[in-house]
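Ticket 4471: requesting a sanity check on a complex prediction with adenosine monophosphate. Repro inputs:
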Amino acid sequence: MSSNGDRSERAALFSVRMHATGPGGQHISGAEGIFPGSVVDEAARYYTERAMSHSRGAPAKTSITVEALIQPPVALCSLRVRTLESSDTQETEHTIRTILERVGISLRAIDSAFGVLRAESAMRGAAMVCAREGKRLDPDRARGVRASLLGISSRARANLLRKLAPYSIATDRVLEALTLATKVAAAPGVVAELCVSDDPDYTTGYLATKALGYLRMPFIKPEGDLRGGRVIFLSEGADPSATVSWLEHTPVIMKRTGKVHGPVPIRKITVL
Ligand code: AMP
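Returned structure tokens:
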């Protein structure tokens, strides 16, 4: 969807969101953006089509929400993008654990995160985990916390697509995940985010921190695995309600774009 607008700042802006569920009410897919009023109908059509052709199955119910923004979105610069050089799931998990430890996350919290990511039932949102104790901090553990009210300006989108193209990753999936990760990394109290898609045919996840940027993680799960999820690590003593307020209620738009690099070996990755 190409129309998240730059005309935006002066024109009224709308958050357009899609959520599709299966016959038992289980989560199938979700996506969203911020758009000027002139392209809201196009955005709604685009998200409906996406819901109807998802690899997790045909939805029994698809909801499209169009909501006028009552405050101007905060402008953000997208995180730097890189891809880990890895050849299998073991190597990827080892790297994730190494980096998380290096950014100060305890073994208990890392194990707790992998427990969430490997749970059988998909959550709609992300789990918030204390980086020291490993305890869950999100108020509704079945749902998790949803990062919402996020988008990308059409100029930033075009710039990013141009930067991503040489690495064959100029896709909506990457743009949307990068937008979400950029919002999460800017949230109060957040140390890191780890994401595994719940799409069975998408096995590249990511690990993101402000300093590390957005590090794509190939082979984060085996092909065909329906499990997935997101974990947001919060520093000890952070106020989870401030994080939730930023993630769920503060609109943000990516207007500037960070660097994009190709594959990197773990020895070249510094985290601080
Ligand atoms: P996806 O990358 O869309 O396959 O999503 C992977 C997992 O991330 C989902 O199973 C949810 O647990 C979580 N998730 C998806 N969208 C959001 C969101 N907007 N905010 C927080 N967590 C999300």
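Notes from triage: The pocket of adenosine monophosphate is lined by residues 30, 122-126, 146-147, 177, 180, 195, 197-199, 228-230 (CB under 6 Å). Leaving this open until the requester confirms.
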